[in-house]
Amino acid sequence: MKYADIIIDISHERLDKTFEYIVPTELENQVTEGVQVVIPFGQGNRAITGYVVGLHNKPGFDVTKLKPIARVLKDSIAIESQLISLAAFLKKNYGSTMNQALKTVIPIKKKENEKLKKEISLNISLEQAQIELTQILTKKNHAVGKERLLRELLEVDVLDWELATKKLQIPSSNIRDLESKGIVKVESVRTFRNPHINKDANQKHIVLNEEQEAAAETIKADIDTGRRKTYLIHGVTGSGKTEVYMDVMEHVISMGQQVIVLIPEIALTYQTVMRFYTRFGDKVSILNSRMSPGERFDQFERAKSGEISIMVGPRSALFTPFANLGLIIIDEEHEPSYKSEVIPRYHARETAVYRAKLAGATVILGSATPSLEAYSRTQTGEYQLITLHSRAMGQDMASCEIVDLRAELQSGNRSMLSRRLQELMADRLNKHQQIMLFLNRRGLMGFVSCRACGHVLKCPHCDVALHLHAGGKMKCHYCGYTTVAAKTCPSCGSKYIGSFKAGTQRLEEIVKELFPTARVLRMDADTTKGKDGHEEILSAFAAHEADVLIGTQMIVKGHDFANVTLVGIIAADISLNESDYHSGERTFQLLTQAVGRAGRGSEPGIAVIQTYQPDNYSVVASANQDYDSFYSQEYAYRRLLSYPPCSHILGIQISCDKQQDAIKQADIIADIIRQADSNIIIMGPEDAYIGKLKDVYRRVIYVKADEYDRLVNVKDTIEAFLLQQKQYRNTSTWFDFDPISTI
Ligand code: ADP
Ligand code: ZN
Ligand code: ZN
C-alpha cells in the first residue's frame, strides 16, 4: 500500500501543511508527485482538489483514520502540477526537503501591506523637455541620472518609479530634484504597469544576417513541425545572439505561447532590458533579485493571468507560472550564477531542460564560451549545436598579442604595464580611442596581514580574513564582526601590519602617473558600492567621458562600447591559480569575453594578454579565439581526473557548533556511504573551504561517480539514515551536486 502527502492550498505560506491519504491500488500507476487529485475532505467528505507532493510506503498516521484518494484529475494541465513536478525533480536531483523545493518553485504570498506604485511623467511639454535636456548636457559633470530620466521621458509617457530607480539606476535624488523644479511629476498609482514605450520612435530595424537567419530558421522549423529540442548557440562575442533569440521569441509568442529569458544578474543592465522592452513592449516583465517577495508574487500573478508573455530575469525567473510555456532561453549559459547557492542547489540549465520537457517547450542556450557541460552534450547529440562564426556587422575579431611577464621582468620592467601595452595605450590616447584594462582579481584584496611574518588577521567566529574599513576598523564580511584595526601584529609584534590595496586601485595610480592627461574611470567592488555605481560608470564610459576604464570582471559584461580599440589584460593567469577544477574554464571564459570587448565598432581592435604562463592552453586558446582547441584540451583533463562533465561529484557538508560533533557525524556519514556503495570514490571528511563560519564548524565529504544516479542513491541513503538517527541531531547536513565552487 502507498500513501500520499497532499497539499491543498499552494498559495499558503506553510507549504509543509499536507494531508495524508491512501493511494488505492488501482490508482498506483497514475499517482505521482505533482498530479492533481480529488479527495474527500473534512467531516462532510466534501470533494476537493489537491496536489500530491510526496509518496511513501509507510503511513505516518493511524491507517484506520486515513481516507483514500477519490480519483486523479486526468489531463490536468494546471501549471501548479508542472511546478510541483519540478519541485520533486529538484528534491530528488539536488537534495532538499519537499518543502524547501516547493518554496523554491512557488512564490509565497506574504501578507504585505499593499504598496503604492509610483510613476514618473513629464510635467512640461516635449519641446520644453528637449530644451531642458540640452541645457543639462551643456553642463560639465552633469548628473547622468537626470539626463537619462529626461531621455527616457521623451520616449515614453510614464515611467515606473521602481524601474527608473532600480533597473535604469536613476538616483531618486535626481528625480526629486527635477520634480521640485516642476519638470517632472511623481504620482502614486495602485496597479503595476510597464513603461509605455513609443515603439516606432525607438525601434531600429534590424535585419538578421545570413548566419543569424539560418540559426533562427532551424529552430523555428523544428518548432513548427512539433520537434522540441535543446539548442546551444555558440556565437562569438558580438555575433548577435540576442537578435536570434528575439526572432524565435516572436515566433513562439505569435503561436500564443510564452517565453522565459534567463540572463545573469550582472548582465541584466539597462541596455539589455531596454532591448526587450523596445521589441516586445507591454508583453515583457522583468524580475530581479532586489524585488521583495510580494513584488515577485505580483509578477508571477501577471504571468499566470496571461497579462504578460515574456519574463526576463535571473535564475529564479525559471519558475514563472506560464500556463503555456513554449520557449526557455538561457543567455550566457556558462555563467556560474545559474547554479543556486541555497538549498536546493539546483542548476538552472538542467532544471530548464526538465521544465521544458514537462511543458513541451524548446530550450535555447547561448554563449560565446559554452560550458564544458553544455558543449559536451552537443557532441553526444543530446543538444543541437548552432554556430555563429562571425560578428553581426562583419567586424573582425580583435587581434591578440601575448606578453610574457617573466621576460618583461628580466628586462627590468617591474611595472604592471608591459612596454608593449604602454606603447599601444599611448597610440590609442593620441587617436582619441578608448581603452579597457582588465584585472581579474577579487576576494583576497583588502585583507589585513603582517608583512614581517605573514600572519593573517582572522575573524574569531569565522575562518576568514578580516578586511580593513574606513575609520580604522576591521570587519568580517561573513558575520559582520567589527573590531579596531590592529596596530601591531598579534603574532610577532611587528608594526608592519596593513591591508593590501586592491589591484585595480594600484593600476589606476600607475596609469595616471604614466598618462597624466588621460581621463580614467575605475570599476570594482569599491567604486560600485552605491546601487547606481555600476551603471553610472558604464554609461559615463559609453558616453566617452573617460579614455580608460579599469576594472574587474564586472566590466566585461553587458555594454557594447564601439570606440574601444584596445583591451589590456593585466594578469591573465591569476584565475588559473584558484584551487578548483573550473579554473582553466573560468580563465578561458574571462579572457575570451575580455578580448571580445575590443573592436566592436568600425575600428579594428587589439587585445594584449599579459601573463606569467604564456604557454597555458587556456591563455593560448583564448588569444587565438579558438574554443574547439580549448574544449578538447579541457575535456581531456576532466576525463583524466574524473571531473564533470565526464564524471559527477557530490559534495556533502556537515556542520555543527560543537567541533567534535561535526567531526564525528562526518565520520559516521562517510561510513554510511561506504556501506551503501563499496566501490564509490570518497574524499574526506575534511574541513570545509571555510572551516568555521559564525562559530559553526563545517566538514565536507566529496563523492565521485561516473553515473549521476549513483550519487542520487548515496544522497537518498544518507537522508533516510538522518531521518531515523537519534544521535547528533544538533548537526545539519546538506548536499551539493556537481558543485561549481569549493564548498
Ligand atoms: P551577442 O549577444 O552575440 O554578443 P548582440 O545580440 O548583443 O550580440 O549583438 C551585438 C550588436 O550587434 C548589438 O548592438 C546588436 O544590435 C547588433 N546587431 C546584431 N545583429 C545585427 C544585424 N543583423 N544587423 C545589425 N546590427 C546587428
Ligand atoms: Zn607578524
Ligand atoms: Zn566572522
Automatic annotation (TrEMBL):
Binds 2 zinc ions per subunit. This is Replication restart protein PriA. One of its GO terms (cellular component) is primosome complex. Zn(2+) 2 binds at residues 459, 462, 476, 479. Component of the replication restart primosome. Gene3D superfamilies: P-loop containing nucleotide triphosphate hydrolases (3.40.50.300), PriA, 3(prime) DNA-binding domain (3.40.1440.60). Its cofactor is Zn(2+). Residues 222-388 form the Helicase ATP-binding domain. Its EC number is 5.6.2.4. One of its GO terms (biological process) is double-strand break repair. CDD domains: DEXHc_priA (cd17929), SF2_C_priA (cd18804). It comes from Pseudobutyrivibrio ruminis DSM 9787. Residues 484-638 form the Helicase C-terminal domain. Belongs to the helicase family. PriA subfamily. Zn(2+) 1 binds at residues 450, 453, 489, 492. It is an enzyme of class 5 (isomerase). One of its GO terms (molecular function) is ATP hydrolysis activity. It catalyses: ATP + H2O = ADP + phosphate + H(+); Couples ATP hydrolysis with the unwinding of duplex DNA by translocating in the 3'-5' direction. It comes from the Bacteria. Initiates the restart of stalled replication forks, which reloads the replicative helicase on sites other than the origin of replication. Recognizes and binds to abandoned replication forks and remodels them to uncover a helicase loading site. Promotes assembly of the primosome at these replication forks. PANTHER family: PRIMOSOMAL PROTEIN N. HAMAP family: PriA. The gene is priA. Keywords: ATP-binding, DNA replication, DNA-binding, Helicase, Hydrolase, Isomerase, Metal-binding, Nucleotide-binding, Primosome, Zinc.
